[in-house]
């Protein structure tokens, strides 16, 4: 009888520290671990099924990323989203996204197709009530426009905002459930402005949309 084929490397479990890192980061971004939550090494080790050593390694990495603050012999505090961080993220988004919206006109057919697909997927996720996935798809919609601008430096800068955008997006939708439908409407308006070839209208849509998010999230997680 022929022997079973070897298990592909891709099917092996990722290293323990990576599993802890992914578990904690996802929970912070979707606010399962809200700002102000104190995480313990023992609790995380039990939750993920690993020893404490990889937990420490993962927490150190997340501290460098600005999501946690480590306290020796106590654990790791999930850092709240500060008012200054909100202001910084929104200012950076406006600078990058307004420029990208203008550059999207005239829009290539492929961009319109991708934005239509992302908007449809966001609607489906909103109906399912998956806030973390909605926030991720929301961010992907905007990132697609930024990538289309063709400036790799701006794209890399924008990618650095990803984690903060996702976390803030979930916070807004939890606090303001009506914002989910409003986001879909505003994305549709932005798509229509790009499709119609009106660069200034597209930039205005971005300015209104991102600015409104700032107003809603201000005061959350302070």
From TrEMBL:
Transmembrane segments: none
Keywords for this protein: DNA-binding, Transcription, Transcription regulation
SUPFAM superfamilies: GntR ligand-binding domain-like (SSF48008), Winged helix' DNA-binding domain (SSF46785)
Domain annotation HTH gntR-type: ranges: 14-81
Stored Pfam families: FCD (PF07729), GntR (PF00392)
Superkingdom, natural source: Bacteria
Record protein name field: GntR family transcriptional regulator
Higher taxonomy: Bacteria, Bacillati, Actinomycetota, Actinomycetes, Kitasatosporales
